[in-house]
């Protein structure tokens, strides 16, 4: 989390599950025959670019990674028919550990360094970017924007807690902009048919670009494996059944992509693994300490010298604007705002920004948390899904700096399980802050006698080293290694 204003951007994430704009059938689109990029689409993409780059932590500054992403992205994008000129497509690597990729109208294609670390060859990168370009080629975003006019942007907050806020549009806007940023964008996703169509087109683009057509299926499988590990690490192993999601089940999606690849052929085309691994060797992995890091259940910010801990079963996502937090029956955001030196006024201003009038909230109360002056207030808001409790909990770390949580829970629950989280806010000592070091992807050559377990022991983690190694390399638990093979590890 860095100190920036909140933004709301429109970009559809490359994801396995999420909310969708609709369930109607996607009209046919022929690979390579998309309508050319229009002037208005180019303008739309250009206008969105600054917001997207800011939201995702800026452009990742690494010449080799940038060159790889640009070359592969342009090679796959021209297969769509949007333009035959590779220079018409601007491919950007975003400086965030979130596993994501997306494209916007106008020839703008984005991929995060987090997702690039997870992929294992050029073909997988091409498959992901081809899928996203296909959404643009099929003009899915226009259909999504039309649907968004009649759907709440608060879908990113979850069905249990919020919907469109009744009679309180400012609260809805704030939550949509604040908690729905970063990894969980406050936007509507694509429908099942649109996702399936983008997968289908992406596989065809792979073949025409000369890449292994099975690469999209393999990267979808890698993402599913990483998602399962993330759930295990967070203690949140609850899964959403396929019928509860408007996106295809990940296993079904992998099978469909592989079937399409086998039908059109090209599964023996190049993967270009060595070139890809050479490009990402030394790439930053995980959070950039300059913006704070997530370490298990801890959020640690060495520059700001602050930290907090979420309860077991909660998950966090760190964006440029805020840390978003999800847990059972709980949504929360940790952020900051301008501070004039009066903590009670600060809490009141946050509530005001939420659209809450002073007459509907409890009085601001003062307390001390781990030696830090704090203040809090709670109110209740109406949503389409029912009433929710909204708590603002703020801390003064200096005469001109304060931070706060906004916590949403079902009405009557108050802070609920988030109580321990707001109590955990603390300062980091200079020694603790100095001990927080960045991690990097390192590509190593397997030596005779090396095993997944022996290589995993070199990973810069304190837990689940083997699981992390296998997920990072797209390997199963019974994987065997051969001398001379190149694999990824994560070191400091």
TrEMBL record:
Q: Where is the signal peptide?
A: 1-17
Q: Where is the LysM domain?
A: 442-489
Kind of enzyme, top EC level? hydrolase
Any one GO MF term held by the record is: metalloendopeptidase activity
Q: Which GO terms describe its biological process?
A: proteolysis involved in protein catabolic process
Q: What keywords are assigned to this protein?
A: Hydrolase, Metal-binding, Metalloprotease, Protease, Signal, Zinc
Q: What is its EC number?
A: 3.4.24.-
What does the record give as cofactor? Zn(2+)
| Any one of the GO CC terms | membrane
CDD domains named among the record's database cross-references: LysM
PROSITE patterns for this protein: LYSM (PS51782), PROKAR_LIPOPROTEIN (PS51257)
The name under which this protein is listed is M48 family metalloprotease
**What organism is this sequence from?**
Stakelama marina
């Amino acid at each position: 989390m860095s100190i920036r204003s909140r933004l709301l951007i429109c970009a559809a994430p490359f994801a396995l599950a999420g909310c969708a704009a609709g369930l109607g059938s996607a009209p046919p689109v022929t690979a390579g025959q998309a309508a050319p990029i229009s002037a208005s689409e180019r303008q739309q993409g250009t206008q969105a670019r600054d917001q997207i780059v800011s939201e995702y932590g800026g452009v990742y500054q690494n010449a080799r990674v940038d060159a790889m992403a640009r070359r592969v992205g342009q090679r796959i994008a021209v297969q769509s028919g949007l333009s035959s000129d590779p220079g018409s497509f601007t491919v950007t690597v975003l400086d965030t550990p979130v596993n994501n990729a997306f494209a916007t109208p106008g020839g703008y294609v984005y991929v995060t360094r987090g997702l690039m670390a997870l992929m294992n060859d050029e073909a997988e990168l091409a498959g992901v970017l081809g899928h996203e370009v296909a959404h643009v080629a099929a003009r899915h975003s226009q259909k999504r924007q039309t649907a968004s006019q009649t759907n709440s942007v608060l879908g990113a907050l979850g069905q249990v807690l919020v919907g469109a806020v009744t009679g309180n549009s400012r609260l809805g806007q704030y939550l949509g902009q604040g908690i729905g940023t970063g990894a969980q964008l406050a936007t509507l996703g694509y429908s099942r048919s649109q996702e399936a169509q983008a997968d289908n087109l992406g596989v065809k683009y792979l073949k025409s670009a000369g890449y292994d057509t099975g690469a999209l299926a393999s990267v979808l499988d890698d993402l599913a494996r990483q998602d399962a590990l993330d759930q295990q690490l967070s203690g949140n192993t609850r899964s959403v059944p396929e019928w509860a999601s408007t996106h295809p089940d990940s296993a079904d999606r992998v099978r469909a992509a592989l079937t399409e690849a086998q039908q059109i052929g090209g599964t023996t085309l190049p993967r270009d693994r060595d070139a890809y691994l050479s490009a990402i060797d030394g790439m930053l992995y995980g959070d950039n300490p300059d913006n704070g890091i997530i370490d298990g259940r801890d959020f640690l910010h060495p520059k700001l010298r602050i930290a907090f801990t979420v309860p077991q079963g909660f998950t966090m996502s760190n964006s440029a604007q805020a840390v978003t937090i999800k847990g059972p029956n709980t949504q929360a955001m940790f952020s900051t705002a301008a501070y004039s030196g009066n903590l009670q006024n600060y809490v009141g201003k946050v509530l005001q920004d939420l659209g809450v009038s002073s007459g509907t909230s409890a009085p601001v109360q003062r307390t001390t948390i781990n030696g830090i002056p704090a203040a809090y207030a709670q109110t209740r808001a109406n949503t389409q899904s029912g009433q929710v409790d909204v708590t603002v909990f703020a801390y003064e770390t200096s005469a001109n700096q304060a931070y706060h949580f906004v916590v949403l829970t079902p009405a009557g629950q108050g802070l609920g399980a988030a109580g321990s989280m707001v109590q955990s806010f603390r300062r980091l000592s200079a020694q603790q802050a100095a001990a927080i070091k960045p991690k990097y992807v390192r590509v190593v050559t397997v030596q005779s006698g090396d095993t997944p377990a022996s290589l995993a022991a070199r990973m810069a983690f304190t837990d689940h080293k083997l699981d992390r190694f296998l997920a990072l390399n797209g390997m199963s638990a019974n994987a065997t290694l051969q001398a001379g093979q190149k694999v990824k590890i994560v070191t400091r």
